[in-house]
Amino acid sequence: MEQEAARTGAAGRDRGEDGGEVRRGVRADYRPDAGEAVSILAPEVAEFLEGAHVAALATVRPDGRPHVVPVWYEYDGKEFTISTFRGTQKLRNLQAKEKAALSIFTTELPYRQVTVEGTARAGSLIDNVWRERVAARYLGKTAGRAYVSDTADMDHVAIHVRPLTWHTEGFGLE
């Protein structure tokens, strides 16, 4: 019984040998501070993240209230990259507190979702090559190019979300 309590921890979540939280769909030896991108995800989860799912990005306003917005994203195996315009509320929030959550989910059965919590930071300006690739993923090649062209005169800033915790559901891994 004591051994089981030590393994699952107070919240009843599985714990690894070092006491770190183990999430289904994510390799047990995942360490968020690893310097290089590693394949930490179950193949089903990695494939899901490559789809054109709109994500919900949650940040915290300086007064403590949550702020949640829909975003497009790209995941490189290490962090999620999101594009936003300079001066947005989400950028102001990240200047005050570099924490964020990202929830990516389906809206039709069978429901599947991936939610990460982690550190977030504003990066440099995003180039049109990245923007065209991501816009084509969500809108198709022609409409993606048109979107990038229509918004080319605006400053697009990267937001990088580095996951510290993962939660997945609906992949048969629970």
In short:
This protein has 174 residues and is α+β, with helices and mostly antiparallel strands. It has helices spanning 2-8, 43-49, 89-96, 128-139, 141-150; strands at residues 55-60, 66-71, 74-75, 80-85, 99-105, 113-125, 156-169.
Order of helices and strands: HHEEEEHEEHHE
Portion of residues within helices: 25-40%
**Biggest sheet, in brief?**
7 strands, antiparallel
Determine the strand fraction and express it as a percent band: 25-35%
Examine the coordinates and then state which fold CATH places here, giving the name of the CATH topology.
Answer: Pnp Oxidase, Chain A
The largest beta-sheet arranges its strands as 2-1-5-6-7-4-3
Termini, distance in Å? 22 Å
| Classification by helices and strands | alpha+beta
The CATH superfamily appears as Electron Transport, Fmn-binding Protein, Chain A
Q: How would the global form be characterised?
A: globular
Q: What is the level 1 CATH name?
A: Mainly Beta
Please describe what this structure looks like.
This protein has helices spanning 2-8, 43-49, 89-96, 128-139, 141-150, and strands at 55-60, 66-71, 74-75, 80-85, 99-105, 113-125, 156-169. The two termini are 22 Å apart. With 174 residues, it is α+β, with helices and mostly antiparallel strands. The chain has a single domain, classed as Pnp Oxidase, Chain A, CATH 2.30.110. Helix 4 (128-139) packs across helix 5 (141-150).
